[in-house]
Specification:
The chain has 442 residues and is mostly beta strands. It contains five helices and 32 strands.
């Protein structure tokens, strides 16, 4: 678009509301505008709409440098809900995807976090940096939902055996945690998610109080007057000796938008099914997985994941490639749709191994996954190329573990999205000192 001539500052025909100074290049630079009219006043609704368009982490940086009314607005539970709703439905860029992890074997009281976008977009010479958080004890990540991570720790007796578990909610973006919840028993099958109908965060726990006692399936609703409730028994043991069926993982995957937790039930003789728990009705259902080829290696364990807000599964096909499926219509087996096939590649295979490629996240045509080789890989589904991202985990405070660029399987990973949701928003006492950000040494 062509610009018109720049008015001369000395031209009396030009109306003035302030002083306009021209730069050496001839373009005007407005330094200030002095007017007899009072400055415009933005309506509260317009202010809220503007703030809702700012990413969560940026809002937290602004919170202590804005007026009290804005600070109150940003800190409110309703604003956190509106910001979350907008980021999920309208502008996903407002809630950056991150990956949190803990050590699988070594009991470090630390959790590492790094940016998914950085992993997928940085050039090889620019490594993605891991930041580390330190707690008062070793904690395991159960799951994530709306920016909250559900953690659990354990209490051991004098003989070293676990006698009880505790659970806690933590928002790494805001830094706030809830007070630990006493589970009063040893946790096995579990899951954390959100009941979107009743606006409640819930924790499922299959618990055994003492050795030899029967297990109970309980549901905890986080809130000011929350207690454990016994619900219908979980429909399957972690491992069934008679059928050979077992759950791929103890912690169920929460699928946003459906209000469900999901477990893959598998056996070496066949694919079995997905077990689903509806967090609204607190009832179970089951549905089948995509059919397999007769030449498939049934000893290769499939992997359940979430891609593009849909349930996804990956397994080896004909011992030559990986097939990734996603479920377009949740709970309807006929809606399983083949997303892509990924040929075997030296960076993806590792012998001996009995687990499939683990899909983590998808951005455009690039899939981030953990390969059988134990490394993070970037699979370009458009041109078939495979790349290894550069992740610098030297500052994660877990020195006995191999660097992430060499091996990822010594850690357990959980994808989450930043949000403003805080445990205090649903009536839980919270603090900001339980998980401390470790500043890397220079």
């Amino acid at each position: 678009m062509r610009r018109g001539p720049i008015p001369d500052d000395d031209d009396d025909a030009v109306p003035r509301k302030g002083k306009v100074v021209t730069t050496t290049g001839g373009w005007p630079e407005l330094l200030r505008c002095v007017t007899t009219k009072p400055p415009p006043i933005l309506l509260d609704e317009l202010i809220a709409e503007i703030l809702l368009r700012i990413p969560a982490r940026s809002l937290l940086r602004l919170r202590n440098s804005v007026c009290s009314s804005w600070r109150t607005l940003i800190s409110s539970s309703q604003f956190a809900k509106d910001h979350l709703r907008r980021s999920m439905a309208v502008d996903p860029a407002l809630t950056h995807p991150l990956i949190a992890y803990f050590a699988r074997a070594c009991r470090y009281p630390k959790i590492g976090v790094f940016s998914v976008r950085s992993v997928m977009e940085n050039p090889p010479q620019e490594p993605t940096k891991v930041v580390s958080y330190e707690g008062r004890r070793y904690r395991i990540i159960i799951g994530s939902c709306n920016g909250l991570l559900c953690l659990h720790d354990e209490e051991r007796g004098e003989d070293g055996f676990i006698i009880s578990h505790r659970a806690m909610l933590w928002n790494p973006c805001t830094g706030f945690t809830s007070q630990p919840l006493e589970i009063a028993g040893v946790l096995s099958i579990c899951g954390f998610g959100y009941d979107h109908v009743n606006d409640k965060y819930k924790l499922l726990a299959v618990v055994r109080k003492k050795s030899g006692e029967p297990v109970t399936t309980r549901m905890f609703t986080f809130g000011p007057n929350s207690t454990w409730r016994t619900i219908q028994d979980f429909p399957h043991n972690y491992f069934d000796f008679h059928s050979g069926e077992y759950l791929e993982r103890l912690a169920g995957l929460y699928l946003s938008g459906t209000g469900t937790l999901n477990w893959l039930l598998y056996s070496y003789s066949s694919f079995v099914k997905v077990i689903s728990l509806d967090l609204v009705k607190e009832t179970y259902s089951q549905f089948s997985l995509p059919s397999r080829d007769s030449h498939d290696n049934l000893l290769m364990e499939p992997k359940l994941g979430i891609l593009r807000d849909c349930l996804a599964v990956c397994y080896e096909t004909k011992k030559t490639h990986w097939t990734v499926w996603f479920m377009k219509d949740y709970g309807v087996p006929q809606s399983w749709t083949k997303l892509t096939t990924i040929p075997h590649h030296p960076l993806l295979v590792h012998s001996p191994s009995c687990v499939a490629l683990q899909p983590i996240y998808m951005l455009k045509d690039v899939l981030l996954a953990v390969a059988l080789s134990g490394k993070f890989v970037l699979c370009n589904l458009k041109d078939g190329s495979i790349d290894l991202p550069n992740i610098n985990s030297s500052s994660d405070g877990m020195p006995r573990l191999l660097p992430l660029t060499q091996h990822a399987c010594t850690r357990v990973f959980q994808l989450y999205h930043e949000s403003l949701v805080s445990p205090s928003h649903f009536g839980l006492p919270s603090c900001s000192s339980e998980m401390r950000l470790i500043k890397p040494s220079l």
